[in-house]
Amino acid sequence: MRIKMVGIDHSKASLDYRETFSFTKAGVKEAVKEIKERFRLKGCILLSTCNRTELWISQCDNKKLNTVNPYDMLCQIKKIDASLYGEYFVERDGSQAVDHLLKLVCGFDSKIFGEDQIISQVREALQLSRECGCADMALEKVFQTALAAGKRVKTEVHMCTVNRSSASDTIDILKSALGDLKEVPCLVIGNGQMGKLVVNMLASCGASVSMTLRRKMHGNDEQESIVPEKCQMVPYDDRIAQVSGKQVIVSATLSPHYTLRLEDVKELLKQPYISGKTDSEADRKYYLFDLAVPRDIDPEIGKMPHVKLYDIDSMNSGGTREENEEQVQLAMDILGEYQEEINRWFEFRHYIPKIKEIVDMVSEDTVQRFISKSSEMEEYDSENSVEAAEASVKKATSKLLYGLREQLPQELWEECLEALHRSASRETLKH
Fold it and tell me: Does 75 participate in catalysis according to the annotation?
């Protein structure tokens, strides 16, 4: 199993270090294509979220080509000195890497234990790699099996989590500080998945919500977007002006640059907020939430006297593994089944060269028989007929042989294939 991964995440690295290795979607596509080509890999997948960046690679069988480890690959792509950040990364290979991915898709390694978003994030990472032609058969099998395992765990095992996303963390913090959120003026910068989730949660609490809408890269038409109910849409370019009068500001974009800079908002936020509720200190503060990596909001804004700024590292962590001990064991039993499935799949791949040899021998034998039989026919297209016969036999024989993986116990695979190989080699079959 020539699968390796390297990753940096919230358990070992602060946000400052994680955002150094973060990628936008466009950046992921560029990176996987460059990594695959530069290091002559069979495949690679790059997972980049708020809490982690992971590079998965499928190496070639030629050991001479496997001289660079995935951490160095990542540093070279990022143009970063590899000697600076190695202590924050973990490298895994083979079954250890697979075990990590299975637990990852269940949210066991997430900052918010058991959270749901990681499944869609892993699925998106696989899809982006596919679009670039970088997801080889081995990585496809590992990621597809992990996603199936995660979906089953989410369906059959019910974790006790206080929070399941950064969006719900945001709501909990606001309720704790302000109590009732009815009519609280809010601005959400970013209309992606996270932005819409926050908007819907705020609106369901009765808040007065505005959300920015970007324009297309070329032209002036607004992007097509499903506008959440009870939400006012405002142009992204007007976001600074929209800060005025808002007590809550949430930013969740994929921008590599700050959406809010200190110099843009310091005059707008220098006076205490007038809520009309009470004169408590909490009601007179502005609440800013930065749910992006790299960060959207200039950290200097958080130093202003009337501003409370949260980033994803200062949010609540939700439920814990200890609180879900019994459910975690149920999940681990399920994951064990999928781990065994992947192990069997990779073990069977050792027999592929022999299977191909058997297929070629059976194909040759069948073609000879077909030519001999066709010579008795009055009319036929020899070239096309031979090609059709050869393709059909190879497909049928491959289906038969690969089916042994499901029909036979693993301990019989080698014995069975050796017997089939000897049978296919018999000279008498060609006469």
Answer: no
